[in-house]
Amino acid sequence: MNKNISLLVAIGLLTGCTGGSHIKDVSSFEKRPLVKTSVMPSKAQISGAKARVVVLDIDDQAVAIAKTANLGVVIRNKVESLVADAGAETVDRKLAMKLQEEIQLAEVKGNRNYKGPEIADFSITGKVVTTEFTQSYSAASSWVDDKGKRHVTPAKCTYRAAIEATLKVHALPSLNLLDTISITDSESRTQDLSGHSYRHYYTSQTCPKYTQAQLSSLIGAAGADAVVESKVQIKSNFSPRGYITEYRVAKDRNIFKITMGKLAGVKEGMKVDVIQMFHDENALTGETNLEERKLTEGAVSNIVGQKYSWIVIDDASMAGRIRLGDTVKVRFEDSFLDEIKKIF
Using alpha carbons only, what angle is made at residue 323 by residues 20 and 178, rounded to the nearest 5 degrees? Predict the structure, then answer.
């Protein structure tokens, strides 16, 4: 398919019509009663306090070139940046020196519940799985255009680094594993071998040695890009959350007031998921866990206050199932340009 046609198709798919989220006047909507949800939020949750996240050291010790390039530090710093971008508070890892050890014990022996100071709500750990570096030589080539003019492409060397790592998100103090994120990416750079100073390389068809500084830069770029490629999954673990407090209806439109607004980074047009919480008992152990299930989705309207906002739910049948105290979570998504890059 022609690239221009593909682009137009992609734009059409990614900018498809959605229900309008503009509200002219809330008072014109009729107020409806709400049944309480089965697991009501606590006062601390309703207050809208930011999630506290500690990003612990990313283990790169088992992969020599990753360790030399300080890949673990690069990944950790990029993850911290995304956590802050999600609206969460990053906690100084120096305050959680014992935590990393307890997480390792929990994974190996099944020990649960962190006994240290309550400095965070979530932790992120990680490990570099593989890091590869390759280089390849491409000989010079030439071609003649329609006018008989010869064009020469000089010899070049391509240097490539590929990394793979795993990130894990744990809840604190339970140490329950919430999410496992595999990140992978590669980065390539080329060196033009034209000119007298490179004569030895294009005659011997070899590549100039890559310095340690160049290698570290290349590996670091691959690591940072790998984190960014998974930004939606990473940030979604710490999305701002609010709670349903009011329900109104006008004709076929359903709107709900929630307990988060500008202070939580909420903006008009943002997509949100409505989630219901349930206590689920394990029939074998008798232990009770808190589970969340997505009920429906909606969009933030034009009415956004400092600590509240109104959302619009297009699905009327699902709107009728929403309860007082249900959780509303901002949904992070790739930007339009990110989606286009994935297609092409």
Answer: 90
